[in-house]
Write a structure and sequence with these properties.
This protein is mainly alpha-helical. It has 5 helices and no strands. The longest helix has 52 residues.
Length: 115
């Protein structure tokens, strides 16, 4: 394979890199083998970083999906019982500030009405 054809393949199918063309053209076979091993080691290191990043990305996306499921479940539960919107405590705070229905009696009604 000629050098122009190699350059064409690299430019067409690979991410542009800084390949030392002059060095490679004049290097001995031992130097080329050494350069190849160094390049393969760098590629392996990059592959491991990519795998770690993909693993971290998948974990974060999974955590977000689980949180979304809890949100949807909570919304379905609240939508099925409208009175629950104003009486369900979420970490000690009222989720909404609307007044509850008058049929609710006692301390819960007074607390909700005071908000």
């Amino acid at each position: 394979m000629t050098l122009p054809r190699i350059k064409l393949l690299v430019s067409r199918f690979c991410i542009p890199t800084k390949i030392p063309w002059k060095y490679l053209r004049g290097a001995s076979i031992i130097s080329l083998e050494s350069y190849e091993l160094v390049s393969l080691a760098r590629a392996e290191k990059a592959r491991k970083k990519i795998i770690d990043l993909l693993s971290e990305w998948m974990e974060e996306m999974t955590a977000a999906a689980v949180a979304r499921e809890f949100i949807e479940e909570a919304r379905l539960r609240i939508d099925s019982n409208p009175a629950q919107k104003c009486f369900e405590f979420v970490e000690g705070a009222w989720p909404c500030r609307a007044k509850p229905d008058r049929h609710v009696e006692g301390a819960a009604y007074r607390r909700a009405a005071a908000d």
